[in-house]
Amino acid sequence: MFFTTCLSALAVTLALPACGDDSGRGSDSGDSGGTITEGATGPGSTTAGGGSDSMTESSLSAGSESQGQTTSGTTTAGETEGVSDTGGTTGEPPSCEDEPPPGFMVPPDPACESEPQVGMFNPIIEWHKEVWEVEPGSKSSVTTPILVQLTDDNLDGEINTLDMPDLVFITYDGVGVLRAVSGDGQTEIFSVPGNGLWRDESVAGADIDGDGVVEILTVNQNKVLLAFENDGALKWQSAPLGNHVGTYDNAPAISDMNGDGTPEIVVGRAILDNQGNLIGAGEHGIGVHTGNANGSASMSFAVDLDDDGQQEVVVGDALYAMDGTTIWYNGQHDGYPAVGDMFGNGIPYIVVVSNATVRVQTSVDGTVVWSSAIPGGKGGPPTIEDFDGDGLAEIGVAGFNKYTVFEGDTGEVLWSNTTQDNSSGITGSSVYDFEGDGIADVVYCDETTCWVYNGQDGAVKMNLTEHNSGTRLEYPIIADVDNDEQVEIVFVSEPYNGNYRGITVIGDADESWRPGRKIWNQHAYHITNVADDGTVPALAEQNWKSYNNFRSGDLSANDGLAAPDLALEIAELCDKSCGPGGVATIWVHLGNVGAAPLTAGAVIEVYGTINGMEMLLDEVPYNETIEPGVFTDSLPIEVQAANLESARLVAVPNEEECNVDEDNEILLMPPFCMVPE
């Protein structure tokens, strides 16, 4: 809500530096936060290097122009180009619209760490769906859902992240039905029966042909790879893949193996082009758990392990080139693979779950570094993440009646929880740092319960009993499914040990969970394998060098408990800051004085007080990453100044910070502007 009449005949005097005065910036004198009053210094304001600075008074004349008025809730902090230091000025200072004060650096606080939070977690069911217009009898599901963009929901002529994301999965009542539903659960997009679709097969999605829309891939019961358009129409089908893939439980993985801009598709040990033609096939493993009671699954994928710009196909016992040539074979049992940096040395290692063990082997030749028995036996596809905030990756594995987290560098058990899975013992899991405290929470569903465990010690944060499953290789995904800038948990169910079935979306009752991506496109998801718009990177970033996770949606930097610390500093209320209608433009720097990047963005809340009552006037989002020690180029915040007794700016991070203090807040007192006589 804004006010439209300007205060008249007010002298404009604020304790702010003149526009273009960069004194103290780039040194230890960066003043952060505090109260700005007429003739005042910044009380309580602390410089990054210690000590405090006094702010000088400057007179600001009115009657200048502003760049329009702000609409509540729609302003976005602009990316202003930094300019060179203007130094001291004489006479009228330059316009900040023409020369926005540039960003600057301060020393970050290396001791800034977040405190792990337990209990600030209130999950609720946002929606559940088991009733369908097409093939209504097909309600149950045991396949990992994916999240992609299929439809132009806002009718702007493009399918992109501004539209509602869509969930795709397979239901069954005997045979399979490929279904797509909007992420808010309101719209059935398509339901495709027939085509030999089978209940156990995983789905994958990406723009495989460069047409700007996502295609859907799955394997049918005849071991044929099927590709569907974004409306559910069959696009193509491959020749039968025979023993190159599993009997069922196959998970296609999409990547651009040779960096030519055209994706390839990996299923088992088969490598296909984007039209379903077989390029090559390996001779050894297919990415299957030996002794899998539920059939011969295949969980392979491709990544560039040796920095040559060419991706290799990863299975449990071998590494293949794009043409199927064996790069190495180590003679071990095949198994479900994942890739991560297990020793903090920037080198990728292959994690394999097979034959009731988990092992770490080198990516160079498959030499086994360590191997550990899985409590309870069996074991599903591994999940990699820094579970305990120590800066090193751990490995999560679900087995028979146990979920266990292993230290990635030693194979020692960090913790193990009792579950109920007597049926398969090969289910997957996912992880996410919901609170932004540096601790990755585990999300796992067994036969009767969906669990959320604190990654540090396994403490139970959720045990939702609205779930049943005979358990295959499915696992919950974690992403922003409904465009509300908060992640949700999505899982599927079938009536095994109960009657619950369909697809369920879990959110937070307090709407406090961190933002996340609006895509999760395949079983072997590892963030960098797909872009936000569903395209496949020609040269994908190597996940272990940045996020170092696998089957995780967490975009946090791989920095353990190190945390950002948000700060807000006044830049200018410039000479030409009061425009028509009494719009005052306040220039601020948003900074991070902590020890880790601020990756989830922040919101600058603008409050105004009138007649003794403070109210929220606007919320200005800032969505870019802020590295430690960096203050952004100055950002314009527009405020209707009429009748304001004070204005208050509060910087609120979208993730946990190590200090919540006065550095996040600026208080401005009148006068703000005047109307020329």
Descriptive notes:
A hairpin with a 5-residue loop joins strand 10 and strand 11 (188-192). The chain is 0% helix and 33% strand. The strands form twelve sheets. Strands 6, 39, 40, 41, 44 and 45 form a six-stranded antiparallel beta sheet that branches. A five-stranded mixed beta sheet has the order 3-47-46-42-43, with no helix packed on it. A four-stranded antiparallel beta sheet has the order 7-38-37-36, with no helix packed on it. It has no helices and 47 strands. It is mostly beta strands and 677 residues long. The chain has two domains: 13-112 and 566-668, Sandwich (Immunoglobulin-like); 123-545, YVTN repeat-like/Quinoprotein amine dehydrogenase (Methylamine Dehydrogenase, Chain H, 7 Propeller), CATH 2.130.10.
Layout of SSEs?
Blueprint (H helix, E strand, L loop, with lengths): L12 E2 L16 E2 L1 E3 L9 E2 L10 E2 L44 E2 L17 E7 L16 E3 L17 E8 L1 E8 L5 E5 L10 E4 L8 E5 L5 E4 L5 E4 L15 E3 L8 E4 L2 E3 L5 E4 L19 E3 L8 E3 L3 E3 L5 E4 L6 E5 L8 E6 L2 E6 L5 E6 L9 E3 L8 E6 L2 E6 L5 E6 L11 E3 L8 E5 L4 E4 L6 E5 L12 E3 L8 E6 L8 E7 L57 E7 L5 E2 L3 E10 L9 E9 L2 E10 L7 E2 L3 E6 L5 E8 L11 E4 L9
Parallel strand pairs: 3-47
Antiparallel strand pairs: 1-5, 2-4, 6-44, 7-38, 8-9, 9-10, 10-11, 12-13, 13-14, 14-15, 16-17, 17-18, 18-19, 20-21, 21-22, 22-23, 24-25, 25-26, 26-27, 28-29, 29-30, 30-31, 32-33, 33-34, 34-35, 36-37, 37-38, 39-41, 40-41, 41-44, 41-45, 42-43, 42-46, 46-47
